[in-house]
Amino acid sequence: MIIKVKAGQAHIIDELQRRFGDSHDVFVHNNRVAVQGIDESDLNSEERAAADEIIDNPPAAVQGSRLFHPEDTIVETAHSQIGGDNFTMMAGPCSVESAEHVMKMAAVAKEGGATVLRGGAFKPRTSPYSFQGLGEDGLKFLRAAADAYDLDVLTEVMDQDHVDMIAQYTDIFQIGARNMQNFSLLKAVGKTNIPVMLKRGMSATIDDILNASEYIAAGGNHQIIITERGIRTFDNKYTRNTLDLGAVPVLQKLTHYPVIVDPSHAAGHTEFVIPEALAGVAIGASGLVVEIHDDPAHAFSDGAQALKPNEYLEMTQKAAAIREALNMPVHEKSEVEL
């Protein structure tokens, strides 16, 4: 249950915490109190009188819900503000291949307006015989490249045993689609104060990803970014996954966390990445995370979906134009010559 407390009744918030805190999960955000496992009949007359609104059936992912936390969460890092009215570009190679290569890709990412450098040092590959990443050396290369161009680091953590080590190098943890419901891992990153990008699982519903995000929030970490990266449908012949663009506004209605789009893993083929990226911008995502490579044919992983530098720069220019058009007042839009 969520109780919206009237102005001037702050003592009721303390009272609710005192009364229910030992036996129930109690969360407070400004004048809203969420108490798990009770209903209105459990409140006394003073508490009911102090309530401006009582929501009896909140979603299971209550801390991530706009019913509990109406305003947008802005995830702040050294170089980025993610969420709200901000738009964040994240780019980099699928895998960190060498110190020299990731440095080159950092320069390209920066040129296109990115504030976050993505790159994998530990890779969850479909085949155990595929390249698995450079490990901690890769993290060192990634961190050095990001620092050289004033970028934040985004990298995947696959195992709860790696959390402390990766935390030394990253600004944002990535939880990949395959680990979206790895609850031990979610709990582990939830105990840190490092932002977490949570990617939607290939077969996950919207409620599934919201409930997964609640595992992170339950540990005390509310710096969460949700990523739509395509889901598995009946047709994956022409694209790797099906980009569920409709999930973006739905998630934005349900949760206060930033929602971004990953067109690379959705499309799976370079020729479709830019159109899907631009569609993500147009539908109002808070950012994009894309893979880039200067020689995709010889990339260590996922070369088929990597944008070449010129393609990436073309995409970022078009994305900026779409953002500008979306933010332009209607009377000005009518004056634009086509």
From TrEMBL:
Chain ranges of the DAHP synthetase I/KDSA domain: 79-318
Keyword Secreted annotated: no
UniProt keyword list: Transferase
Stored NCBIfam families: DAHP_synth_Bsub (TIGR01361), PRK08673.1 (NF006421), PRK12595.1 (NF009239)
Entry EC number(s): 2.5.1.54
Record carries keyword Transferase: yes
Gene: aroF
Swiss-Prot/TrEMBL GO biological process terms: aromatic amino acid family biosynthetic process
GO molecular function: 3-deoxy-7-phosphoheptulonate synthase activity; aldehyde-lyase activity
Matches recorded under PANTHER family: PHOSPHO-2-DEHYDRO-3-DEOXYHEPTONATE ALDOLASE
Name recorded for this polypeptide: 3-deoxy-7-phosphoheptulonate synthase
UniProt xrefs under InterPro entries: Aldolase_TIM, Class-I_DAHP_synthase, DAHP1/KDSA, DAHP_syn_2
